Structure formats: C-alpha cells, structure tokens
UniProtKB/TrEMBL annotation:
Pathway per the UniProt entry: Cofactor biosynthesis; (R)-pantothenate biosynthesis; (R)-pantoate from 3-methyl-2-oxobutanoate: step 1/2
UniProtKB keywords: Pantothenate biosynthesis, Transferase
PANTHER family: 3-METHYL-2-OXOBUTANOATE HYDROXYMETHYLTRANSFERASE
Reactions that this protein is recorded to catalyse: (6R)-5,10-methylene-5,6,7,8-tetrahydrofolate + 3-methyl-2-oxobutanoate + H2O = 2-dehydropantoate + (6S)-5,6,7,8-tetrahydrofolate
EC number: 2.1.2.11
Name of the protein in question: 3-methyl-2-oxobutanoate hydroxymethyltransferase
GO biological process: pantothenate biosynthetic process
C-alpha cells in the first residue's frame, strides 16, 4: 500500500460522498494518499469538511493546542467529548475519529468499552484511536468485535512522554525498529482499521506500510505511508509552542490573526474604529426627541455635569 510521489497523479475523481472504512481501504489500495488533519471545534471541523479531508481526527493534542495544558495526559474524557460534539457538527463528510484520552483505555476492557461508547454516542465520532502496542491488542479486538472501529498509534506515543523521557523519535535502532514493526502487525491482527506511525524513520514506515493490509497514516514518518496526518494548528501556522521537525506550515494564520488583533486594538485606541452605523442602526429625529422626553419625565436626567 505504499505511495510513491510519481504515482500520486492518477487520482480517482474526488468523491464528496461520506467517507467510509471501505472508501479508506480503496484509497490505500489505489495508492491515493489519505489526508488526515486534526480538528478541535466547529470551525476547524467545518474546514475539514469543506476542503476534502478524508479523516478528521479530534486529537488529544487539543489538550495543548486548544486548552493550554502542558501534556495530553491532562485531558479528561468529558473534555474530549465536549470537543467531539462541536467537531461532529461541522465535519459530516470526513470519517470522524477521536483519540481516547490518557487513562480511558487503561482500566480494563469493560471500562474501555463504556468510554468508547460515550465518544461515539455523546461525541458523535465514528471510531476511536489509542496509543500503544500488543499490551492493548485485546482491547482493540473487543471494540472492533463490538462494531467500534479502532485506529491504532505506534512509534512516538505522546501520552507516554514521561515514561519515554520526552518526545523522541522511535525505532532508530534495529531492535526498537523491529519492536515497532511487530506492534503494528499485532495491532492489525487485533482488528485495527488503520495505524498511525508517529516519528519513526521513513525506511521503517515504508516497510511497515508494505507489510500491512491496513493503511498507515504517518506523522514524521516520511512519504511512503498510505496517508499523512498533521495537527491543524501546526499546518496553518497558529500553534506558537514547540514546533517538531516534521511540521510544515502551509499557511501563516497565526501571524495574520495577531496582526488583526493588534490593528483592532490600535484602531479602537485611536478612534479609527468604529464608524457610526447609519441606516438600520439609526434613530429618526422624532423618536430621539420622544426618548429624551421619556427620560426627563421619569426624572432620570443624566448625572454627568
Ligand atoms: N502542536 C502539536 N503538534 C503535534 O504534533 C503534537 C502536539 N501538539 N501535542 C501532542 C503531540 C506531541 N507531539 C510531539 C511533540 C514533540 C515532538 C518533538 O519535539 N520531537 C522532536 C524529536 C527529537 C528527537 O527525537 O530527536 C523534534 O524535534 O521533532 C514530537 C511530537 C505530537 N503531538
Ligand atoms: C497528531 C495525531 C496523530 C494525534 O494523535 C493528535 O493530534 O493527538
Ligand atoms: Mg493524539
């Protein structure tokens, strides 16, 4: 299922039909790169809807990007559901996936099923994503068997940054590369419909993509994956925190937005804004006189001298 840049041009006619699992597998088989972007609220969900995104991911990166926490481990299930509700009102056509927040799939199979059901039922998402390897394979198998599709996520696991002593590229030596590959295989066999490969060497990502039946979605994993994902705020240049090496900014919205806010404040301070809004906001002279009489007869003349 690997995708070579020179093969990417033979694109199928873009379908604006609802993206389904079947469609995602067809894209991977045809070697048409799958486009994935995160969304955290209604406007970003709507942006993925309007710009032909295949998968919209309510990533737990929203902890840092949208809520200002210092780690994704701070995000609660209730907070995630709140954001999923907003995104799902905007992103109707993309396949909608939510990250299961840290801790919500670590308390056993039954508790995990309850939490995933809440994301689907209350949050309105179609599938869940979870970070980890063989240690969560039984949970993935259970959810899949119950009809909740699962996207898995290996390589750099942000929810484990403490255990991993930071956000580090994974699989750079033969042994850890083999372990990432084995994990991917086990997760596929457990029933995952796709797998995120985060921050691993491009050769390893290409190898895994060729070896698996399910699509691989890369972030910092090179061009050979079946698809790519980026954090929305990284892609449009809004995120002002740490910029990982794999990030490319496709717009500078943060700069433009900052200039807008600064210009607004300057215009208010200088009296350049606002103008008098005439016409529909106007009061005719007669009504204005009536108003003044009402104020006077109520003895409510202004205090100001
Ligand atoms: N804005 C944003 N973008 C993301 O991609 C993202 C988040 N936030 N928050 C949740 C996780 C955290 N992620 C991260 C965070 C840091 C690095 C990072 O600093 N990577 C180093 C690797 C250094 C190395 O191992 O040599 C880098 O410089 O790219 C990578 C992914 C990915 N996710
Ligand atoms: C970057 C993607 C893969 C993610 O997990 C997130 O945004 O939380
Ligand atoms: Mg995540």
């Amino acid at each position: 299922m690997s995708v070579r840049p020179e093969e990417k041009s033979s694109a199928l006619p873009i379908s604006r039909k609802k993206v389904t699992l079947q469609r995602l597998h067809a894209l991977a088989e045809e070697r048409i790169p799958i486009t994935v972007i995160t969304a955290y609220d209604y406007p970003t969900g709507l942006r993925s809807e309007k710009n032909d995104i295949d998968i919209c991911l309510v990533g737990d990166s929203l902890a840092q990007v949208a809520l200002g926490y210092d780690s994704t481990t701070r995000l609660t299930l209730d907070e995630m559901i709140h954001h999923c509700k907003a995104v799902s009102r905007g992103a109707k056509t993309p396949f909608l996936v939510a990250d299961m927040p840290f801790g919500t799939y670590l308390g056993g199979v039954d508790a995990t099923v309850r939490n995933a059901v809440r994301l689907v039922q209350e949050g309105g998402v179609e599938a869940v994503k979870m970070e980890g390897g063989p240690e969560i394979a039984d949970i993935i198998a259970r959810l899949t068997s119950l009809g909740i599709p699962v996207m898995s996520h290996v390589g750099l696991l942000p929810q484990r940054h403490t255990a991993l002593s930071g956000y580090r590229v994974q699989g750079r030596d033969a042994l850890t590369a083999y372990s990432v590959f084995k994990s991917a295989k086990v997760l596929q066999d457990a029933g995952a419909f796709a797998i995120v490969l985060e921050a691993i060497p491009h050769q390893l990502a290409g190898f895994i993509t060729q070896a698996l039946r399910i699509p691989t979605i890369g972030i910092g994993a090179g061009p050979s994956c079946s698809g790519q994902v980026l954090v929305h705020d990284d892609a449009v240049g809004v995120w002002s925190g740490h910029k990982a090496k794999f990030v490319r900014r496709f717009a500078e919205v943060g700069k433009g937005a900052g200039e807008g806010v600064a210009s607004y404040a300057a215009a208010v301070r200088s009296g350049q804004f606002p103008d008098v809004v005439g016409e529909s906001y106007g009061m005719d002279a007669g009504q204005w006189q009536e108003f003044q009489k009402l104020v006077e007869s109520a003895g409510m003349t202004p205090d100001a001298s």
